[in-house]
From TrEMBL:
Name of the featured protein: Phthalate 4,5-dioxygenase oxygenase subunit
A Pfam cross-reference name: LigXa_C
GO molecular function: phthalate 4,5-dioxygenase activity
The protein's enzyme class: oxidoreductase
EC number, UniProt record: 1.14.12.7
Classification via Gene3D superfamilies: Naphthalene 1,2-dioxygenase Alpha Subunit, Chain A, domain 1
Family annotation (InterPro entries): Cholesterol_7-desaturase (IPR050584), LigXa_C (IPR045623)
Keyword terms: Dioxygenase, Oxidoreductase, Plasmid
Record-annotated LigXa-like C-terminal domain positions: 104-360
Domain of life: Bacteria
Gene name in the database record: pht3
Amino acid sequence: MITQKLNDQITRIGPDAPAGAVHRHYWQPAALTDELTAGDLMLPVNLLGERLVMMRDEAGALILRAREASAGEAPSHHPARAELRVIEGGPVYPVVEKNGICFAYMGPGEPPAFPNFDCFRAPDSHVFAFKGLWECNWLQALEIGIDPGHASFLHRFLQDEDPEDSYGKQFRDKAANTDMPMTQVLREYPRPDIEVDETAFGLKITALRHMANDLTHVRVTNQIFPSAICIPMSREMIITQWHVPIDDENCYWYTMFTSFDKPVNKDLMRAQRLKEHRLPDYAPLKNQSNHYHFDPEEQKSLTYTGMGMDINVHDQWAVESMGAIQDRTREHLGRGDAAIIRYRLMLRKAIKALETGKPERLPMQDRQETPAIVGPLSNDAIADSDDWLAASLASDIERRKAAPWNATV
């Protein structure tokens, strides 16, 4: 457990908050390219506790400018465009579009370079971007993503559907090098050993599920500092997901789905997700107001949560049920929370670095070295228990060699 003072320090993200200062040293997703309109662009954006509008400057470049607060604004994260009024003389933030997401830099000095992550260097044809609203603080949204054990329970499917009919859905593929569905692996081996290693971009998290016949299922995921994750979706596709603070009590997840194989079917993936979300605010149709469509009959025979087949809904229920800002003064972390513990230490070190005037100590703040950061490795494999590390690396290299775009590391 931690003190309330520390919980406030690592969760609150306003301009004068310690964690907010850390976030402002990084590019943050501000909007989907799909949200941009032709002609006069005035797109409302609420980001890091600031009310902004995305527009074009005189040279046609995308920028974010401060906007006036609207009376009776509802919902606060997506007001009507007719209400938008910029504040003359207010801050102006640069915006860069990358494979379907518009990123903004709201920090001091020159923006940092983008690392050479797979989601950025893959061609547009192999990346699909989407987002969704969660009514909770960004940190609890991130922490569920760096907990490898939760998938065996929260996302437990009691029946294994045919992976051939599950394009664009997580945990519906077969585990690498086997005919066993991922849903079966997670269900039958629910308590992985977890190894956490610090990297140039954040953390590498390895979950080892020890199976019969001296085999081990190896699942490698990553925490990308300060608030993103990179995880395998299937053998051909990875997910890079940012947990972006709107304010202290709301966040968006922004996801890039990146394919190492064929071009992504963007129309299908968008249609799948629009069945679960409304526009223009990308709020989920299943939410607290309708109990996430909980069905006790489904819970008996199909899913652990009884809340449908979309794992985003499972995660949403888990993080929103903690309250707007999780009370960490009453928690008791254990061995399975190794990545969460390491991440919080990294965040506190970053806060301390800024407080002592040493921003260069933050991950990926070296403008010369950051573009050389590639990957990261995010996959799953099944191997002999005494050779799981080599097998994991070999599986990643094999996938990268077959990619029609330059995925080399």
